[in-house]
From TrEMBL:
Keywords: Signal. Residues 31-75 are annotated as: Disordered. This is DUF4367 domain-containing protein. Residues 1-29 form the signal peptide. Residues 43-64 have a biased composition (Low complexity).
Length: 206
């Protein structure tokens, strides 16, 4: 009797073990059949340097003047023409210098840039050079020839005669003759129209 009960218990235990094993294998197969889950990427955050804030909609924009074109330099104020004044000492010095340069008849302009004055005076063989702050005037009893290769010539009518613009070495010079004196005017400050005004105001001083 005991032997039959023992055999029955052994069969029951074997069936339970087989059932547990079957359930375990089934669960493992289901897990193996499911594809592995891909972890979602973490959201990317944009960082702003400490102390700075980025207004909405302005990210990636450049501020004019910082990454674009360089600021343009301020334009120079236009030169005003006016009456030129000469002291008695300046007139005497010009007369002495002209005599040294063998220029018997010389001229001084009565009009020019309103704040212009004679800065330097120079002489060479029959050539008087008057350097103002904004222009240069050369006078001679002989024809004054351009110092470089002549690039262009243009005749111009003046109130006191006929002049000629001669461009040599990139520098335009106004040439004219008053009585027996040849005169050449040049400037990198005054316009050609202003320099013609200066030429028309040349006054004879002996």
């Amino acid at each position: 009797m005991k032997t039959k009960k023992h055999a029955h218990w052994m069969r029951t235990a074997a069936l339970l073990s087989a059932l547990i094993l079957t359930v375990t294998l089934t669960a493992c197969k289901k897990e193996a059949a499911q594809p592995p889950k891909t972890p979602e990427p973490a959201p990317t955050e944009q960082t702003t340097p400490p102390g700075q804030t980025t207004p909405p909609g302005q990210a990636g924009q450049t501020t004019p003047g910082q990454g674009g074109e360089a600021a343009k330099p301020p334009e120079e104020a236009p030169i005003k023409m006016g009456q030129l004044q000469y002291s008695e000492l300046e007139r005497t010095t010009v007369a002495t210098t002209a005599k040294t340069a063998s220029v018997p008849t010389y001229y001084l302009p009565e009009r020019g840039a309103s704040d212009d004055k004679i800065d330097q005076m120079g002489t060479s063989a029959k050539l008087l050079t008057l350097k103002y702050y904004k222009m240069t005037i050369m006078e001679s009893p002989e024809e004054i020839k351009p110092s470089g290769k002549v690039e262009s010539k243009q005749e111009v009518k003046l109130n006191n005669g006929t002049g000629q613009w001669i461009t040599a070495g990139g520098q335009a010079t106004l040439h004219l003759k008053l009585d027996k004196t040849y005169i050449a005017l040049s400037s990198d400050k005054l316009s050609q129209a202003d320099l013609q005004t200066v030429a028309e105001s040349l006054a004879n001083l002996k």
